[in-house]
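Handout, section B. The chain below has 268 residues.
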Amino acid sequence: MARKNREKSPNGVYHVMVRGIDKHDIFLDDNDYRMFLKILKESRPLEKAGEQPGNSFRLYSYCLMPNHVHLLIQEIDEPIDRVMKRICTRYAIFFNTKYSRIGHLFQDRFRSEPCNDINYFLTLVRYIHQNPVKAGICQSAEQHHWNSWNEIRFSAGRSVTVPFADVCDKEALFSIAFFDELDNLVHAPIPDKEECLDIDRIRIRINDQTIKSMIIETGMIEKPSDLIYCEPEVQKKTIIRCLKSGASYYQLTRITGIYKRILDRIVQ
């Protein structure tokens, strides 16, 4: 079957998503995230023979998740296909070398959708920065180290720590919306009717210690095995929170001692 042509954006602005093959993680530690940001930062300048370096693309926002990446990006002197091929190829070489693996790292070609108006642009800024909140791995955008929100806040004079301070184009973003407007936008819930390009279903890898702490905190108990003695509504709240954060039924059974069939009954 012929590959469907990519829908072109008249202004060159796209929401781009790339994910790991078979939804596998593409970031296994903090240094992996840092390397991808370094590649993003270094991929922007485009050398031109006999001229000053051009600008390959403009990056308005980004979010790195364990098994996928969101970018709000504008092609300038280079087509988006070529930009993404260069970024993904360089990162795949780094990842495969580091972890002694071979084969494709990313699932097919990247996915994209055009952004043709200001309202949808602002929706995407909110959506991209809220992606880790939606996945249940943090409570607010600024708690996720690997998106551009803290970089944007830092540029606006907020006292924050960021892995890289110059990956996205803050001046271009602020020319579209003031920081206060963006701040309100990023912390406002996304209406259910709004749909953006996203991974089909996110499954975040979460370790046992994090699950144990989550169970103890949510259930207000001394140890995870005490969950069986909690009130049903407390059990349900605790289990649902763990599942939304990426815990598997196998992990929950192993940690709490509660059989899967009982866990299923609790969350119904």
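Note. The chain has eleven helices and six strands. Compare this with the example in section A.
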